[in-house]
Design a protein that fits this description.
heterodimer, A: alpha+beta, Alpha-D-Glucose-1,6-Bisphosphate, Chain A, domain 4, 2 domains, elongated, B: Quinone Oxidoreductase, Chain A, domain 1, Rossmann fold, 7-stranded mixed β-sheet, 6-stranded parallel β-sheet, 14 helices, 17 strands, globular
Chain lengths: ~325, ~400
C-alpha cells in the first residue's frame, strides 16, 4: 500500500463513496437530490465502480496516475451535477412555473453536493500536481543517461591504463569506429549512431586521476553532446578492479530517438553492458570470444537473428573477417 | 562434414555443413571419435529450451583428436595429435568464476551473455550445442568441432583407456559425481536418487564411493531400476509404491538424509491429477517445467537434510514446497556441473577401477543414425539407457 498519507486518505475516500453508490444507487440518488430514474441509477452505479477502481489504484500503486484519474472523475461529477442543477432551475416543459417545495429541497441537496465536489476537486488537483513533480526521474534536457559496472580480474593500474588508450576503445565498444588522439587532452571520435548514421565529435579530458578516475566531455558545438566518467575502484578482495561507467549524451531525436532505437534492437543500456563485458574479456583473455552463432566479435547488433550454431561457410567467414 | 542438426521441436536431422575453422586464437579443432546423446539434449529436442535455431549443431558430450590449434594455444598443454575429452562448459580459466573452479559460470565464454542475463538474472558460461542462450556454439555430434579456450578445458588421455571408458568425463560422470558431492555425504547417510538415467546412475555410484551407507534409486522404468539394482543399489518404482511411505520404510521413519534430483524439467509423476496440472501449465507456457521429482525430493528429505539438483531446469515453475523447505531446514544445492574441476580426479578413479562408466552404455550407432538414437532414447525403446554415436 502507498505510504503517502494524502494519497491513502483519498483512496479510502474513493472506497467510502464507491461502495454505497455501487450497492444502493437509488437511495444515493435521493441523497444527492437527483431524480430516480433508470438512467440516473445506471450513472450512479458507473460512478461507484469508477470510485472503487480509483480506490484500488490509489491504495495499491505508487505514482501520480490514479490521482489524475480522480481529478478527471471530479470533472465528470461536476458536469453531471451541473446538468442536474440546470434541469431543476429550467424545467424544460414547465417554463416560468415556480419551483415546487420538494424540488427546492432537491435543488438544495444537489447544490450542496456540487460545493462538496468542488472542494474535493481542489484537494485532488493539489495532490496530483504535488505528487507529479517528484515523479520525474530523467531530466528533460534531451540527454540520455547510462550507467554500468563490471569487475575485471586485473590490478587497478592496468585496467585504468587500458581504458586510457583511447585509440583502442573501438576494440570492444560496438558503436565506436575510430578514436584519434589529437593533443594531450583532446581527441577526435567517430561512431556509428542508430539507423546507420555516422557521427563525429571532438572530446577533451576534464579530469584524469591515474588509476582512479577519468572524465571527458565533447567540446562546445559538437554534433553530439556527450560527457562521461569512469571510476576504477578496488573490489572487496583488493585484487580485482571495479569499473563504474557513467555516460550522458544527446540523441539526435532525444527520447523519441532512444525509444525508436530500442524498438529496433539497439537498447543503449544493453549496448553499454555488452561493451563492458567485452572490455573485461579483452583484459582477462586477450580477445573477444566468438561462437558460430555470434561470430561477429564486437559487432553485437548483428546478433539478431543469429547465424545458426553451425560452422560458417567460406563466404560467411570472409564477411566476418572483412 | 556431417553433423546432427536441430530442425524444429521433435526433429533432428544429419546434414552436410561446412567444416569448422579457428575463430579465436586459443581455439582448437577436434576430430570427433565418439560423441553421445545427453538427457538434456532431449529437452532441446522437445522444444522446452528457448533460443534454439534451425540448423544448430547439437551435442555437448564428445572426444577426439586435436587436428589444428590456434596461434595462442599453450603448446605445453595441448598439441596437434593429442587425444582429448572436451568438457561441456566452455571456460576461459582467467575470470573470477574460473579461478574459483566454478567453470560453468565462466564470465567470459558466452558471447550471448546479454541474452542469458535476461532469462537468468546473471549470465552463465558458453556450452557446446546447447541453444543460443549459452552462446550459440556448434556442438559435438559432428565429425569436427571447434573448441574455444582449448588449453583450459581439454583433458588429455595418455593411457590406453577406450573411448567408452573416458567419453563420459565430458559431462554425465562429473555431473552425477557433483550431484553426490553437493550432498556432503557422511558415513551412515542414506542417499535417495530421483531418476535412474545415466546421470542418476553415476550419482548413485558416486554416493557409494563417497561413503553413503545405502543408496536408493527412484524411477518407473523397470530396466533402469534393474540396472541400478545390478550395480548394488536399492530401487523404488514410483508407479508401484507411494514414494514417501516407501522411503520412510527404508529409513526407519527418518526419510533419506540426502537426496539427488537427476530428472529436471520434464518429470513424470505417478499421480495423474498433479501430472495433468503441470502438463497443462507447461503446454500453456505458464510454467516452463514439470518439477514433480524436485517437489517430492524436498518433501521426502529428512528434516535438516540436503537436496542436490543436477537435473536441468530452464525457467520458472510454481507450487514450490517452500514451507517444507524452510521450516525443516532443508539445504537446497544446484548447479550445471563444473566439469573441469572433476575430470582429472575422476579419470584417476576410472584408471583405478573405482568407477566403470561403460555400465550405462546400451546402444552404439553411427552418427548418420543420430535421429534414430534420439528416438529410442526419448521413448525408452529397446531398454535404452545411453547412446554413443560414432562419426
Amino acid at each position: 500500500m502507498t505510504h503517502d498519507k494524502l494519497t491513502r486518505t483519498l483512496g479510502w475516500a474513493s472506497a467510502g463513496l464507491g461502495v454505497p453508490l455501487l450497492l444502493s444507487a437509488a437511495p444515493a440518488a435521493r441523497a444527492l437530490g437527483i431524480r430516480d430514474g433508470t438512467r440516473q441509477r445506471a450513472t450512479m452505479t458507473a460512478v461507484g465502480a469508477r470510485e472503487l477502481a480509483s480506490a484500488a489504484g490509489l491504495l495499491g500503486q505508487r505514482g501520480p496516475t490514479w490521482l489524475w484519474t480522480r481529478v478527471a472523475g471530479d470533472l465528470m461529477d461536476l458536469a453531471l451535477l451541473g446538468q442536474a442543477v440546470r434541469s431543476r432551475i429550467v424545467p424544460p416543459r414547465a417554463f416560468k412555473t415556480a419551483l415546487k417545495q420538494d424540488d427546492r429541497v432537491r435543488l438544495g441537496r444537489t447544490l450542496f453536493a456540487t460545493a462538496a465536489v468542488i472542494a474535493v476537486t481542489g484537494v485532488d488537483v493539489y495532490a496530483a500536481v504535488t505528487r507529479s513533480r517528484g515523479a520525474k526521474r530523467q531530466p528533460r534536457d534531451g540527454m540520455v543517461s547510462l550507467t554500468s559496472s563490471v569487475t575485471v580480474s586485473q590490478p587497478r593500474d592496468e585496467v585504468y591504463a587500458r581504458w586510457r588508450q583511447f585509440e583502442r576503445l573501438p576494440d570492444f565498444m560496438a558503436h565506436l569506429d575510430d578514436v584519434t588522439v589529437t593533443g594531450p587532452r583532446t581527441s577526435h571520435w567517430r561512431a556509428t549512431a542508430p539507423f546507420g548514421q555516422t557521427v563525429e565529435w571532438d572530446a577533451q579530458i576534464t579530469y584524469d586521476i591515474p588509476g582512479h578516475r577519468l572524465g571527458w566531455q565533447s567540446v562546445h558545438g559538437s554534433e553530439i553532446r556527450n560527457e562521461g566518467d569512469v571510476r576504477f575502484t578496488p573490489a572487496p578482495n583488493e585484487q580485482d578492479t571495479e569499473v563504474h561507467v557513467r555516460i550522458r549524451y544527446s540523441m539526435p531525436a532525444g527520447k523519441l530517438g532512444e525509444a525508436l532505437a530500442r524498438y529496433l534492437g539497439e537498447d543503449p543500456h544493453q549496448q553499454l553492458d555488452d561493451d563492458l563485458r567485452r572490455f573485461k574479456q579483452v583484459l582477462e583473455t586477450g580477445e573477444i570470444v566468438r561462437s558460430e552463432g555470434a561470430p561477429w566479435g564486437k559487432r553485437a547488433r548483428r546478433e539478431f537473428p543469429q547465424h545458426p550454431a553451425r560452422p560458417l561457410s567460406a563466404r560467411e567467414l570472409r564477411k566476418v573477417r572483412s | 562434414m556431417k553433423a546432427n542438426c536441430w530442425v524444429k521441436p521433435n526433429t533432428v536431422r544429419v546434414e552436410n555443413v561446412p567444416d569448422p575453422t579457428i575463430l579465436n586464437r586459443r581455439d582448437a579443432i577436434v576430430r570427433v571419435t565418439s560423441t553421445a546423446i545427453c538427457g538434456s539434449d532431449l529437452h532441446l529436442l522437445d522444444g522446452y529450451v528457448p533460443t534454439m535455431q534451425k540448423g544448430d549443431v547439437m551435442g555437448h558430450e564428445f572426444m577426439g583428436e586435436v587436428v589444428e590449434v590456434g596461434d595462442d594455444v599453450d603448446g605445453d598443454k595441448l598439441r596437434v595429435g593429442d587425444r582429448v575429452v572436451i568438457p561441456f562448459p566452455i571456460a576461459c580459466g582467467a575470470c573470477a568464476a574460473c579461478r574459483a573452479e566454478m567453470y560453468s559460470l565462466c564470465e567470459n565464454s558466452n558471447p550471448n551473455a546479454g541474452m542469458a542475463e535476461k532469462f537468468f538474472g546473471h549470465p552463465i558460461a558458453g556450452i557446446f550445442g546447447y541453444s543460443h542462450l549459452t552462446g550459440g556454439f556448434a556442438g559435438g555430434q559432428a565429425e569436427y568441432v571447434r573448441v574455444p579456450f582449448a588449453d583450459v578445458g581439454a583433458l588429455k588421455i595418455e593411457s590406453d583407456l577406450s573411448d567408452e571408458q573416458v567419453l563420459f568425463l565430458s559431462d554425465i560422470l562429473p555431473t552425477g559425481y557433483m550431484g553426490a558431492e553437493m550432498c556432503d555425504i557422511q558415513p551412515d547417510d542414506v542417499v535417495a536418487v530421483w531418476g535412474a538415467g545415466p546421470v542418476g546412475q553415476f550419482a548413485m555410484d558416486s554416493a557409494r564411493l563417497l561413503g553413503a551407507a545405502k543408496v536408493i534409486a527412484i524411477d518407473k522404468q523397470p530396466y533402469r531400476l534393474a540396472m541400478a539394482s545390478r550395480a548394488g543399489h536399492e530401487t523404488l518404482d514410483f508407479t508401484q509404491v507411494d514414494v514417501r511411505s516407501a522411503l520412510l520404510e527404508l529409513t526407519g521413519g527418518r526419510g533419506p538424509d540426502k537426496c539427488v534430483e537427476a530428472v529436471g524439467m520434464e518429470s513424470d509423476h505417478g499421480t495423474a491429477p498433479i501430472d495433468a496440472y503441470d502438463r497443462v501449465k507447461q503446454t500453456a507456457r505458464t510454467e516452463s517445467e514439470r518439477p514433480h521429482a524436485l517437489r517430492q525430493a524436498i518433501t521426502s528429505c529428512r528434516s535438516g537434510g540436503t537436496v542436490s539438483v543436477v537435473g536441468v531446469f530452464g525457467g520458472v515453475f510454481d507450487k514450490f514446497p517452500s514451507g517444507s523447505w524452510m521450516n525443516r531446514s532443508i539445504t537446497l544445492r544446484a548447479g550445471q556441473c563444473h566439469v573441469q574441476r572433476y575430470m582429472k580426479p575422476l579419470l584417476k578413479r576410472i584408471e583405478e577401477g573405482q568407477l566403470d562408466p561403460t555400465r550405462v552404455i546400451t546402444h552404439t550407432l553411427p552418427l548418420r543414425r543420430a535421429p534414430q538414437g534420439y528416438d529410442i532414447f526419448k521413448h525408452k525403446k529397446d531398454n535404452c539407457e545411453k547412446v554413443i554415436l560414432k562419426p
